[in-house]
Design goal:
- The chain is of the alpha+beta class.
- It has two domains: about 5-115, Aminotransferase class 4, branched-chain amino acid transferase, N-terminal domain (D-amino Acid Aminotransferase, Chain A, domain 1), CATH 3.30.470.10; about 120-280, D-amino Acid Aminotransferase, subunit A, domain 2 (D-amino Acid Aminotransferase, Chain A, domain 2), CATH 3.20.10.10.
- Helix content is about 30%, strand content about 30%.
- The strands form two sheets. Strands 7, 8, 9, 10, 11, 12, 13, 14 and 15 form a nine-stranded mixed beta sheet that branches. A six-stranded antiparallel beta sheet has the order 2-1-6-5-3-4.
- About 40% of the residues are buried.
Length: about 280
């Protein structure tokens, strides 16, 4: 069950001419609401602003957007202290056809959903993953941005459901490791933590950014670089980040297994001390 709002009013449908429906012309943010507050709100706003700039949409006013979100949480029938909010910004209804004017006014929808956290054992023992067959296209002009065009993720996520895997790791057409279907991935080699470059494709998650900020001035600072299947095989530890669950260790990818090692546990402890309570073991 979910509740949706537009300009503070409940809505149950969207115009069929809306460009988000017609062309996937828009962006979205999925926000963890913890203690009634949007976690990593500033990071979400910055990514949304960058996405609007690149899609040539007028950026929603940050103050107005927060008021709309707070109003949606208050009006929703969903438990608002611990839930998930989704903000969709699209090109709205314009003339028919792909093209539209620069700086198109944005059409904003806010949804509120129940949050379903992973089991505690996932944080303690890790989660199982698969290597997805679906490859991500490279060279996207929107690399790193969370647009409404998620067809590759739909296909890859369906593979996870078929395999009963928590997550699937996706590679691009040139066999570079990119991310999970709903997460970012980190590999530990000794005491070095590496994460795939997202300059060609993939989504730069807000939890990924928060983790990198937290670790920036520590010996465990993260290196962004190109990574492949051999790097995954050689990794001593693997973990995932996501705005909703925080940080989760990976215990398996297909037949390859990993321990939940000391670096991952140290990272989780640091994140728990920096606002991500789920990581507290």
């Amino acid at each position: 069950m979910s509740d949706w709002f537009h300009n503070g009013a409940p809505v149950t449908s969207v115009a069929i001419e809306n460009r988000g429906f017609q062309y996937g012309d828009g962006l979205f943010e999925t926000i963890a609401i913890r203690g009634g507050e949007p976690r990593l709100w500033g990071h979400h706003l910055e990514r949304l602003a960058e996405g609007c700039r690149r899609l040539r949409l007028e950026r929603p006013d940050a103050g107005s957007l927060r008021l709309q979100l707070d109003g949606a949480l208050q009006a929703s029938t969903v438990e608002s202290l611990y839930c998930t909010a989704k903000i969709i910004v699209s090109g709205g209804v314009t003339q028919r056809g792909y093209g539209r004017a620069r700086r198109t006014p944005a059409h904003t929808l806010i949804g509120v959903f129940p949050a379903v956290p992973p089991a505690g054992s996932a944080y303690r023992d890790g989660v199982g993953t698969i290597r997805c067959r679906t490859a991500l296209a490279t060279g996207s002009a929107l690399a790193g941005v969370k647009t409404l065009n998620r067809i590759e993720q739909v296909l890859a996520r369906s593979e996870c459901l078929e395999a009963d895997a928590f997550e699937g790791l996706t590679f691009d057409a040139d066999a570079r490791l990119i991310c999970g279907t709903m997460s970012n991935v980190f590999l530990v080699d000794g005491k070095t933590i590496r994460t795939p470059s997202l300059s060609r494709c993939g989504v730069a998650g807000v939890m990924r950014r928060h983790l990198m900020d937290v670790l920036r001035d520590t010996p465990a600072a993260v290196v962004e670089c190109d990574l492949g299947e051999r790097d995954l095989e050689r990794a001593g530890e693997v973990f995932l980040t996501n705005s909703q669950f925080g940080v989760l260790p990976v215990s398996r990818c297909d037949e390859r297994t990993w321990p939940v090692g000391p670096v991952t546990r140290d990272v989780m402890s640091l994140m728990a001390g920096n606002g991500i309570a789920e990581c507290r073991l």
